[in-house]
Every structure is written in structure tokens, then in C-alpha cells.
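EI: anyone free to look at a 171-residue chain?
SC: sure, send it
EI:
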Amino acid sequence: MKRFLIFTGFLLCGILIKAQTLDNLSFGSQNTFEIMTWNIETFPKNGQISIDYATQIIEALKDDAPVIAFGKGCWFALGEMAKSNASALGVDWTCSARNARYLTGGNITLQGNFDPSRLLSPPSEIKKMVHQMIDAFGKDKYIVNLGHGILPNIPVDHAKAFIDAVKSYSN
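SC: here you go
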């Protein structure tokens, strides 16, 4: 059974905020994909405390849902994050594919890292940049995604160009 789970753990000043337990979550239909996201932007302030709490969240959920851990702007913590039991790590556009693979030891699936502002480029350029990104990460242990959300002013046809570029990739 495949399920869809989005869980956002906010770690603020070392305080773990949990809205509900996994048992209380509704999983939707059987045809959806199971994913957990971890959004944290406080590593520089909280350091190891944040990593420890995030690891606790990952440990609590890893048997019930694949966990993709994502720390925006936290390229420097990728090595520590790779030691968690996350299924994959999200990488934002501030970290190159080469650096992300190096910092994580190349043994964990990576997700990302197309700069969302690049979606303002012409569709033909988007295709070229997406293919370059996939080439840089490689097709193994990689999930194509934006490096952190989509901007509200992105034209729909440009977002579609991103998706079409991924679908048309063959190398």
C-alpha cells in the first residue's frame, strides 16, 4: 500500500513542536506516494540540537514512511544529515551536485536542486538547465526537484517546461 504523508517538523530554539502523532494522521488513498519532508532552517543557531531533534523525528517515522530530510541553506550539515536514517536528503540550489555527493559520501539518495528563479528563463533554457542538473547528479540515487519551492510569479508553461524536461531526459 502506498500512502501520502507530509510531515513538517519545525525546530525553533531547540523546541520540538509536534502537532500530532503518526497514529493520528490520515493517509489518503492507496494510490498515492508515501513521503515525509523535514523543513528546518535553524542549524546555524541551534547546531547539533537541531540535528538531534530532526534525527528523532526521522527515527520515529522511518518504519511507517520513507523520509526525505531537507534543510534549506544547510549544505554544511549534509554530512550529519546523511548519518540519519532518512531515505533521501533534499538539497537546495546553494549546493552543487558534486559538493552534495561529496559531503554525503555518495551513499544516500539526493533530491533537488533546481533554483526556482531559473523557471523565469525561457522554456528552451529550462530544458537545457534541467538536463545539465540531471547530468551533474546522475540518474542513480537521485530525485529531480526544485531546490526549494516554486515562486508565485512563475508562468505555468515554465513549470510545465521543467516537468517536460525531466520526462524527456535520456542519457
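EI: Residues 131 and 169 are 6 Å apart (CA to CA).
SC: 👍
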